[in-house]
Known about the structure:
The complex is a heterodimer. By secondary structure, chain A is mainly alpha-helical. Chain A contains 17 helices and four strands. Helix content of chain A is 52%, strand content 5%. The two termini of chain A are 30 Å apart. Chain B is 16% helix and 37% strand. In chain B, strand 17 (256-258) and strand 18 form a beta hairpin. By secondary structure, chain B is α+β, with helices and mostly antiparallel strands. In chain B, the strands form four sheets. An eight-stranded mixed sheet of chain B has the order 6-5-8-9-19-16-13-14, with no helix packed on it. In chain B, strands 1, 2, 3, 4 and 7 form a five-stranded antiparallel sheet that branches. In chain B, strands 10, 11, 12 and 15 form a four-stranded antiparallel sheet that branches. Chain B has three helices and 20 strands. Strand 1 (189-190) of chain A pairs antiparallel with strand 20 of chain B, so a sheet runs across the interface.
Amino acid sequence: MTSLRRWINGIDLRRFRFWLQLGFFVLFIYGGYAAVNLGNSLPTFACGFVGESRGGVCYLLPLQHQLSVPWQRLFSWAILGVLEAFVLFALWFFVLNKAWCGYACPLGTLQDWITALRTRLGVRFSRYREAAFRRLTVIKYVLLALTLLMPLAVGGGLLPHSLGTPFCDICPGRMILPLFTGDTSQLTVNFAEKSTMIMTALGMLITGGFFAGAFVKKRFFCFFCPMSALHYLLSRPALLQLRKDGDKCTRCGDCYRVCDMEIKEIADEVNTPRIMQDDCILCLKCVAACPEDGALKATFAGIPIFEATEQGFIKRMNKGAAGD
Amino acid sequence: MRAFRFWAVLCLALCGQNVAAEPLWLSDQPPDPAMTARLRSAHGGWLEPGPRGTFFKRLWLRAGATPATAGYPTSAEGGEVLLQDPAGAHSTPSADASGKHSQWRFPVAQEGFYDIYVTQRQVRDTRLHVSVAKAEVLKHSCREGHDDVQSKMPPKHLASIPLEIVRERLDEEDFHTRLGFGDSVTFRVLAYGAPVEGAEVTLNTASGWRNTVQSDAEGRARFMLVRDYFPDWADFDYRHRQDFLAVATLERDEAGALDGVPYARTRYQATLAGQYHPSSRDYQSYGYGLAIGLFGLSFGGLGVYVYRRRRTRPMREVRFDD
């Protein structure tokens, strides 16, 4: 048992994560070809606009659909469908917590691949200034509120029906992920109505910005992701957790330096064991980069499954795999 | 006054004959557009909400080859009715006598396609006229999920129907697919379940354009749905729904008697209506989409480049004089 634990703690996380992300990517984009269907309540961007080949559907798409029905229907029996889908979403989410972002999200994986390309090209990455970081991190909550309120307004007849899925209209996943199945139909501006024209044009603009941003900034889009905000609101009871033992932390800052999301608290906070912040994607790169035994650990239902060890750190450093 | 009565009677008689000779078909478009207020638009057309989340489909009998102007015959012109549900079970929905027009209402509980047939037989001029009006009704709600769509997509037919039209599916067609301008539709003409060669198949678009072809050895007739909607751009509605009507006609030397009335020949006529909409090609632009995407990419990239250049400070050598 001890040797197994030692082996896990010394794992090459970068390689493990690459293969796991690739597996999830294939599952969500091509899983339908193997008759895989994980349902419509997945807590990750398994885009519903990918055709029959998809292995499941991101929860935000059916959620917006459900909320955009007329209020009279929504606040009667239709609310049961909304609750059922939410419970399924929550059950999926409680298993992996925000690791859905760090390991499963196809759009996140794509950003990591763009980051790998930038690294190979020798282009340096960008970081936000702390003040900018604090401002930007609010955007995802604003987007989440709009994602919920705009379909509700559609149901109440306050907005046109074509605004029923506002976040999907501007989500770069809608434009990019179907491309992996040869479907280019989302790369268009829809002139059918003024609202669709504005939203699809905005979507294409954001898609262009997504590529530019993801090339210089690690996990660029995740700062603005409303799914990430929704995750954080539900993350406390989840099974997978990131914990920190402040007594063992020497505040060397390695964890902060490898963090794609630039979460400063991971290095600075030494009083609270529940260290996970709203921007965290539970990639566990901080755990892999930590040289102090047991200072950082990932737990599943309270049981440590991967924790920082000096031995593991040295092993990864020798391989050049402690984080990038 | 006597002359007026004569012409009035003659006109009525001629009109009556025309209605009888015109193809009969089934449509979910109500005779009074105001009725749509209590219907719900769904994949597959109008649905009538029932109690506790149930839904019903209401179909009216129509007479006339031009869908936009076809009339609504009265209830006296009904016929034998047969309904096949998505699971293949048969039933006979009763006519709904609530309105003055000939109509049927039936529950649609299952996901998939319902096929309803209204068959009429009539002997006129020593000829038996067999008219089969068929409607293929889709019931789909996204709330029911999309797990088993493809198994429910293949069109069904009945071996007991004298003549029927089956619309073959498009490639990758699913419950959400909308036929649009420019799409090619293929119909199969089947008599008692067997393909019919040489049947005359006519496609009528909403406002009256029509094209007639002969079915091939496998009973197939192929048409392109031509654009039939030319509003000003300000009035353009991408959800604009139009009906098309396919009519297959077949004459056979089949003699016999119907209710004691003899006939020397038999004329079969089958109809199938469907919906089509403006094509997405009419209102979606790749050119603008890609241009805006490229603008976002280059503007973002240029912005980062300029920002980095402005923040780059030239190296200044500092020498300490020890």
